[in-house]
Structures are given as C-alpha cells and as structure tokens.
Automatic annotation (TrEMBL):
This is Gliding motility-associated ABC transporter ATP-binding subunit GldA. GO terms for molecular function: ATP binding; ATP hydrolysis activity. InterPro entries: AAA+_ATPase, ABC_transporter-like_ATP-bd, ABC_transporter_ATP-binding, Motility-assoc_ABC_GldA, P-loop_NTPase. Keywords: ATP-binding, Nodulation, Nucleotide-binding, Transport. Gene3D superfamilies: P-loop containing nucleotide triphosphate hydrolases. CDD domains: ABC_DR_subfamily_A. It comes from the Bacteria. Pfam families: ABC_tran (PF00005). The keyword Membrane does not apply. It comes from Paenimyroides viscosum. The lineage of its organism: Bacteria, Pseudomonadati, Bacteroidota, Flavobacteriia, Flavobacteriales. Belongs to the ABC transporter superfamily. Residues 3-228 form the ABC transporter domain.
Length: 298
C-alpha cells in the first residue's frame, strides 16, 4: 500500500478542514483528488507530505508514518505544491544541481529529468526568465529528481498551454505505470485523460471514491441540457419525475440528471406545456466527470 489514510481530521480554529478522511492507494494507481475551493485538498496533501500535522488519525506513505518517520516519508515522495516555490535568480540547471545535492543524487540524473520534463530548450536560462508553464516543469523535474515511489502533485498543469498540457499529461501517465501518483486539479478533462480513479471531497468529507469508468456505469442516468424561453424557478424544476439532480447553467438553461429507464425528453415536453413555456433547445448528453462533480458537490 503506497498511501493509507485513516480517520484523518484537521481543524483551523472553528473551521473543520478535514473530517475523518479514509482511503487507500496502491502502487501504480494514478488518483485524481477533486473538490471545490476550500474543500480540504491542499490540507490533506500537506499532511501527507509532512508539512503540517493532522489533529487526529493516521497517515502512512510508502510504509512510513508521517508523524513518527517524517524524514523517511520526505525521501520517498516527490511533491509539487500548488504555489511552486522556486529560487528565481538561479539558472534551471543550477537549481536542479542544488536539489540533487540535498537529495544526494548522482548529477547525471539532472540531465535525465531535464529531458524527461521537456526543459532542454530553457535549461540555460534563469528561472525568473521562464514562463509560468516552464516554471511548473522545473517544479516537476525537482519532484522527480530522486526517483520517488510516490508523487503528490497539487495543480501540476497550472499555466501550461495546450501543447504543454498534452506533454505533461503523457509524462504523468507514463510515470504512473510504476509509481503512485496522487494529484489535485480543477481540470476535469485532465483527470479523464490521466487518472484510473477519482476521489471527490466536499467540506472536508469524501463524497465519492471509485474507478473512473465505474463512475459512468449507471446506465439509467440520463443527462439532458435544456433551455426554456423564460426563467423557471427551482421549485418547479424539482417537481420533474425521476429527477436525480439539477444545475442552472445560466438563467433559462438547465442541466438535468434523471434516473429512469424511459426517455425523459417526452416528460420535459409535457412539463413545458403544463407551465405554458417554450423549449428553445434540448440535448441528451453523455454523463462526464464534470457532471458527476457537480452532482456530488453542489
């Protein structure tokens, strides 16, 4: 077991950031950790990386307790925090050399991670001269320097352009074949492209934890996007039969999720007729991670 979290809780004053969190992650899994802002994602990642301590519970990373063996945990993880701390006055290679000395890593590893993370064209520059995307690459290269068993990545693709996104996603996916990757992101397409499993947290509590494909496996769920010619109050929407959840996209536009064997579009036509409103557009959509995320966190 690469990561094991048991009944972890953390409070900031009267605010409960984490409330008895439990999960296990095996070696070779790439797990997406999702939640709204303030849900507790970064707090848990800081606990797993020994930056802060939990108030209650136990966290084991690569076989080591984060409280009793923090140095062993630090040696076995690579961490890219949300706000990537870098020495902007150092050159890329100089910065990686400094970190290689800290980890007591052979200097040839520096060239390997530079190539691995696509830093070769910028390796001669000062970090302060780099774009935000390339600074993220420096952070990822640093996290990979000592070839850790576990990678903990908080918003790893912040600031990357579409081409860089694809490259870094492929890199993370390849790394995940023989390591454990635990990553936080707000980009749902990123999770769908990279991750095997998804954990969703809301207000410090896990509200979903499953293999990605199994999250889409409810064959009865229908997602319908509909736009009316007037704004309809939520109390009327709630009256729809077999309605599982709903989301007001914008004014007169709604995303509706039904759990039913029958096609619910006919029921929506009846609903519109009953309210004497017109349907401007209606589309049956496939359920995706963004839909599930809203369903679990709204």
């Amino acid at each position: 077991m690469s990561i094991e979290v048991q009944n972890i809780s953390k409070n900031y004053g009267t605010q409960k950031a984490l409330d008895t969190i439990d999960f296990k992650i095996n070696k070779g899994e790439i797990v997406g950790f999702l939640g709204p802002n303030g849900a507790g994602k970064s707090t848990l990642m800081k606990i797993l990386t020994t930056y802060i301590e939990a108030d209650n519970g136990t966290a084991i990373v690569n076989g080591f307790n984060v409280n009793t063996h923090p140095k062993e945990v630090q040696k076995s993880i690579g961490y890219l925090p949300e706000h990537n701390p870098l020495y902007l006055d150092l050159y890329v290679r100089e910065y990686l050399t400094f970190n290689a000395d800290v980890y007591k890593v052979d200097k040839k590893r520096i060239d390997e991670v530079i190539q691995l993370t696509g830093l070769t064209p910028e390796a001669h520059k000062k970090i302060g001269q780099l774009s935000k995307g390339y600074r993220q690459r420096v952070g990822l290269a640093t996290a990979l320097l000592h070839d850790p068993e576990v990678l903990i990545l908080d918003e790893p693709t912040t600031g990357l352009d579409p081409n860089q996104l694809t490259e870094i996603r492929d890199l993370i996916k390849n790394i995940g074949k023989d390591k454990t990757v635990f990553l936080s992101t707000h980009i749902m397409q990123e999770v769908e492209a990279i991750c095997d499993r998804v954990i969703i947290i809301k207000s410090g509590v896990i509200v979903a934890d499953n293999k990605l494909q199994q999250m889409f496996s409810n064959e009865n769920d229908q997602v319908i996007e509909i736009e009316f010619d007037v704004k309809i109050e939520e109390e009327f929407i709630k009256r729809l039969p077999n309605l599982k959840s709903f989301h007001n996209i914008h004014d007169m536009q709604w995303e509706l999720i039904f759990n039913a064997n029958e096609d619910m579009r006919s029921a929506l036509f009846d609903f519109a007729k009953e309210l004497d409103v017109k349907i401007l557009s209606m589309q049956l959509k496939n359920k995706n991670l963004e839909t599930i995320f809203r369903e679990k966190t709204m």
